[in-house]
Design brief:
- The chain is an all-alpha fold.
- It has one domain: Orthogonal Bundle (Ribonucleotide Reductase, subunit A), CATH 1.10.620.
- The protein is built from 13 helices and four strands.
- Helix 3 runs antiparallel to helix 8.
- The radius of gyration is 20 Å and the shape is globular.
- It starts with a helix and ends in a 13-residue tail after the last strand.
- The structure holds fe (ii) ion (2 copies).
């Protein structure tokens, strides 16, 4: 492993771009007052699942892989996926650990301990695969050096809930596809995805229960925030996935089809807690995501080429992106009646 490759991966993980996974801080004191008693029964059942820790051995198994077997044409996009995933997993780990450290509330500290445990395993596992490929992210460096974004607890619930559930939907969609089409499984890490995504699903359940225990988070003006986070998360995913065409080609998948399948699953899951869903089948929605993607490609080109004219172009393009985002934000949403019992099973 050379010094340069290690730094390049760590540098990529540290970079703060609009689309890259971030690290978060929050108001820990406010989390002290989370009261899960309205959902106590479901909460205890969920914590019993965390305690059983059925995936303990799963991430200890070794990945057998000869780096020479990685198809050259997929290498760049695959490494990009792994580095972005390890950053996201580790970001969860750091956030949950920090909350645990700062909070005395026994329900929350026990939960955060279990989730940090899972995310640390996930991050470590991806990093082992990266190491095998001659690249690794220096997670300690990341923790010290990456910029942290402050989110109020409410935003942490919306954003983290969504990213856990979307993580589940992505992993299970890839897993099921490769189960049906094993000839596209170019790396063994995808064999781990089924158990893995059940961890993510459970993490999402925790935030669903926290929000259901505090229904004011799901009413009034907060519905505007939920709408915002849904759109921001969906749009980011769409643009990012389309920036890795070779990866999806290697999967034998169309990234657009993949993304809409993931949206469908995520939308179905979020009915457990969000009072509204986005209509991702609306042709205006689909056209808007395509526009955002094209603008993002143009911004990247302008950035690469540099120069004064291109900085101006970038500014104009960013305004354009904001206008498209605004238009998508104003599209009609679908109302959702919350089910009596918030718990859901990972049935996809
Ligand atoms: Fe994870
Ligand atoms: Fe997670």
């Amino acid at each position: 492993m050379t010094e340069t490759t290690l730094n390049a991966a760590t540098e990529q993980a540290r970079a703060d771009t609009l689309l890259a996974p971030r690290f978060y801080r929050t108001d820990y004191a406010a989390m002290e007052s989370i009261d899960v008693s309205p959902v106590r029964k479901q909460w205890d059942a969920m914590m019993a699942e965390f305690d059983r820790d059925e995936n303990r051995e799963h991430f200890r198994k070794d990945i057998q892989f000869d780096p020479a077997d990685l198809p050259e044409e997929v290498r760049e996009d695959f490494l990009d996926l792994l580095v972005s995933s390890v950053t996201a997993e580790y970001s969860g780990c750091v956030l949950y650990k920090e909350i645990e450290k700062h909070v005395k509330n026994p329900d929350i500290s026990r939960l955060m301990n279990a989730m940090a445990r899972d995310e640390s395993r996930h991050a470590g596992f991806i990093n082992r695969s990266l190491k095998q490929l001659g690249v690794a992210v220096d997670l300690g460096f990341l923790k010290r050096e990456k910029a942290y974004t402050y989110f109020s607890p409410k935003f942490i619930y919306y954003a983290t809930y969504l990213s856990e559930k979307i993580g589940y939907a992505r992993y299970i969609t890839i897993f099921r596809h490769l189960e049906r089409n094993p000839q596209f499984r170019f790396h063994p890490i995808f064999n781990w995805f089924e158990e893995w995504c059940n961890d993510e699903f459970r993490h999402g359940e925790a935030f669903a229960l926290i929000m259901r225990a505090h229904p004011e988070l799901l009413r009034g003006r907060n519905k505007l925030w939920i709408r915002f986070f849904l759109l921001a998360v969906y749009a980011t995913m769409y643009v990012r996935d389309h920036s890795r065409p070779k990866l999806y080609k290697a999967f034998g998948m169309d990234p657009t089809e993949f993304d809409y399948r993931v949206f469908d699953i995520t939308t179905a899951i979020t009915r457990q807690v969000f009072p509204l869903t986005l209509d991702t089948d609306n042709p205006i929605f689909r056209r808007g995501l395509e526009q955002l993607r094209l603008i993002s490609v143009a911004i990247d080109t302008a950035k690469r080429e540099g120069g004064v004219l291109n900085s101006l172009r970038r500014a104009v393009l960013s305004l354009k992106a904001a206008a498209v985002f605004g238009r998508l934000y104003l599209l009609p949403t679908q109302g959702n009646e919350l089910p009596e019992d918030a718990r859901m099973a990972p049935a996809w």
